[in-house]
């Protein structure tokens, strides 16, 4: 007998006490209390393995990442159904056989009710439009799950920016940053280029960088370093952005295909808070 939290739990035996407990293994009566007792009674060497089975591995994806991955998989498969083959039964069958991808995000019932309204439709164009409705529901859910609070560009800095395009993009960035992080990332690359150009106009008016009309991030960063237009602190921030992988992440959104070329809101928030706001402060 083992006492846990003031309660008595029965010790139970297993054929191989060192083996990890499987999800399908039936526990004796006592449920969670006995399971906790088993954890406390296990040898310390097996504790890490048990934690991994319970989801304690720090490398495992977050629940949000799992939800998004499954929704994207469902969306891809739904759009992969041949338009000429579309029938209410085919759409229903696909959704039913892939419902496990919808369960984590909780939209099985909503999608199911919408599919029920497709019954009796036999026109493939109408069914293709009906499929678009399902995709929109998926996209809305994906957008809501992807949304995060991204650190804003400070309003008091925006008010002091003279360049029309830069101030406009700063306001638009703040408007879309939470719900459209990848679009915001593309805007942010342009914002950095414009900040470099504006700083060059202050430091070296009439110079090549100050009068440059094509906004290309890599050469503009290098020109900013070569011309030493920023002070030491701001230069270190830009070098960190260039050399520590964050620039490459932003570049991938613009230049690379695939879902692995998308950006996380945390990356944008980090760049805004640690770099962009501080660079803007150098212009006012």
Strand-helix topology:
Blueprint (H helix, E strand, L loop, with lengths): L1 E3 L2 E3 L21 H11 L5 H7 L9 H17 L8 H10 L10 H9 L7 H23 L8 H4 L5 H13 L4 H23 L13 H11 L4 H12 L2 H10 L9 H17 L3
Antiparallel strand pairs: 1-2
Helix pairs in contact: 3-6, 4-5, 8-9, 9-10, 9-12, 9-13, 10-11, 11-13
Quick recap of the structure?
This protein is about 60% helix and about 0% strand.
Describe this structure in words.
It is a single chain. The chain has 284 residues and is mainly α. It has 3 domains: 2-53, no CATH class; 63-146; 155-281. The chain is 59% helix and 2% strand. The chain contains 13 helices and 2 strands. The protein has a two-stranded antiparallel ribbon with strand order 1-2. The protein is elongated and about 70 Å long. It starts with a strand and ends with a helix.
What shape does the CA trace take? elongated
The N- to C-terminal Cα distance equals 71 Å
The radius of gyration over CA amounts to 27 Å
Structural class: mainly alpha
Major β-sheet annotation: 2 strands, antiparallel
How confident is the prediction overall: mean pLDDT? 78
Instruction: Strand order, main sheet: write it out.
Output: 1-2
The tally of beta strands, per DSSP, is: 2
**Helix proportion range:** 55-70%
Count the domains: 3
Secondary-structure element order, as H and E? EEHHHHHHHHHHHHH
Sequence stretches where pLDDT stays below 50 over 5 or more residues: 1-58
Q: In percent terms, what proportion of residues is strand?
A: under 5%
Counting DSSP H or I runs of 4 or more residues, the number of helices is 13
